[in-house]
Structures are given as structure tokens and as C-alpha cells.
Amino acid sequence: MDDPVTEMHEVVANLMTDPSTEQVASEIMVLQSIYGDDAIQPWKSPANGKPGNEHSATIRYVVSLNLPAHEDVSIRVLVSIPYSYPASSPPQLQLLSRYIGAFGVDSSLFGSILRTFISTSAVQWSPGTVCVFDGLQNVLERCEHWYQERSYKDKPDEVVRPDTLIDLPLHEQEEDLPVEAPENAVLPEGIQIIAVEPIVDRKSVFVGRACRISHPSQVPLILDHLMSDRQIARATHPVIHAWRCKMGNVLHQDNDDDGETAAGSRLAHLLSILEIDGVLVIVTRWFGGIHIGPDRFKHINHAARNALEAAGFLDQNEESGKGSKALQKGRKR
């Protein structure tokens, strides 16, 4: 039996050879870069176990996702792409999971996901525009909310505050709310944070920062220092970050999405493939009110890479002269 990842790569390669499905192939590759290759697999017919795309104009694949606030709880979503997508028809999403955690999926949730692109409260879709990612994120949010509600109902002795059920983005809250600086926001001695020029797209702003660290304990102090900056603290996602630090023979590492699902893990992947140690990279995003879809992950990645380059991390294995030149491209926080 073929490896599902290899099978999916073959599906994408075949789609790329046909101009009419090239957009679909490109979208699948974007999803793979965001969620990981293992998360996207070809759909196989339950009747015969063969790929469901054979002899069919409809392209189908399955996406496995973890709930943002409950990473041990996963869902499986079938994505069906009609021949006329994205020119004149939206995709269809179907929840394959019969259970989310310990709770059986009800007909209401199942039906609402089927209507992701066709109900009055549907995800916005425009002819000629790919939209599977936006649909999947919408499904994740609804499944997360659905799961949280049942989790709280399953704990009747606990008091549940209404504001814990839905975490509103900062831009939907009152702008005049005071932002308090964290205590002990002093930058650790010897730490120099390099920031690069912002990336702006449709009013969203992304700023990358990077610095060298020598111990994991420095990370929360650096983040607190950044959050003491009122402008940073008011951002929609102030400190999306990832870090790696080798102590002796042990490599310590961690990341945080800061509310931007999968963003932290993508930064961690970037540090891993670049094989950089002793580093903390942070990206701040201010949401401008216009949804930009998967492009936001591209900008987060570029902002992080620019900061790493400016701080000299991409030249750390080369001559020190080149590293100092790269450092001059950035500015202190």
C-alpha cells in the first residue's frame, strides 16, 4: 500500500499538469505548507478502498486538523472540489468524524458544516477565488466552540464565565480598553532585539523581530519586555513566536501561535529547517479589518526570515563580516 503523503503528492503533480486544475493544486500545496503534509490525504472510497478521484470530475481529499485550544482532539474533514471550482462553484466540506473527543457529533453540527459556503451565515466566496482554507478555519472555530460547550456542560459543578466560550479578536473589542504593561518587563542583560521593516498587505501589518538567547529562561522576560510596549500590546497577535536553545547536549525549543492558528509551529519549522540555535524569533500582526486568507502565513514567514537575516542568523556559519553586514539591515526594537 502506498504512503498517503506520497499519494497526495502524486495527486497534486497530476493536477498541476492540467491548466484547468492548476489553481486547485496550488491551493492544496498552500494547505500542506500550513497544516503539514501528513494532514492532507487522498480520499478513498469506503466501498473498495480505492482513491475516490478515479473516473470522477470531482476532486476529493481529507484534511485532519487539531482543535486550536485542544491539540489532543482532532477532526477529519472531507473536501470536495467540483469541476467548476473556483470559477463558478464553491467547494463542499463534510465532517467525517463521528466523535469530537468523547462527544458524538449531532446532526446540527454536521449539517452546518455541509452548508459552510451556502448558508446565510456562510463563509464568503467570490467566483474565481480559492477559499478552502477560510472554510476549514471556519469549521475549526465552530467545532472548537461546539466541543467547549459540551465540555462545560459535562462539568456542572464548575462555574463557566460566558466570555470564556468565545475569544473575540482584539479588533472586535473596545479600542479604549487600557493595556497594562507586564510587571518585571526589563530586558535581560546583553539581549539585543533586532526588528525589520513592516510588511503591509490590505491594511494588515506584520513586523518581525529576532534576538540571540543563551538560556530558555530569557524567553518569557523578552516577551514581557515587548508586551510592555503599548503599541505591540494592542496588536491582534502581539507575540507569535518560536525559539530554540541548546543546553549542553539537549536542544530545548517551543513556540506559541498567540491566537493565530498554526503560526507558531510554522515559525518553529522555519528555525528547524534553517538549523538555527540560540534564537528567539517573534512576529507581531496588526489586523487591518480585511481577511487576507493564507497570505497571512506567507507574510508571517517572510517577516520572521527577514528578522533572522537582519540579526545575522542566516550568516552564522559564514564569515563574521557578512553577519555584521546583515545586522545593519535591521533596527533596534
Question: Gist?
Answer:
This protein is 32% helix and 22% strand. The chain is an alpha+beta fold and 333 residues long.
Description of the molecule:
By secondary structure, the protein is of the alpha+beta class. The protein is 32% helix and 22% strand. It has nine helices and 13 strands. Strands 7, 8, 9, 10, 11, 12 and 13 form a seven-stranded antiparallel beta sheet that branches. α1 (4-16) packs antiparallel against α2 and α7 crosses α8 (295-310). The protein is globular and about 60 Å long.
Order of helices and strands: HHEEEEEEHHEEEHHEEHEHHE
Query: What portion of residues belong to β-strands?
Result: 15-25%
Distance between the termini: 53 Å
Biggest sheet: strands, sense, closure? 7 strands, antiparallel
Structural classification: alpha+beta
The number of helical runs is 9
Helix content: 25-40%
Mean pLDDT figure: 80
Shape: globular
Radius of gyration: 22 Å
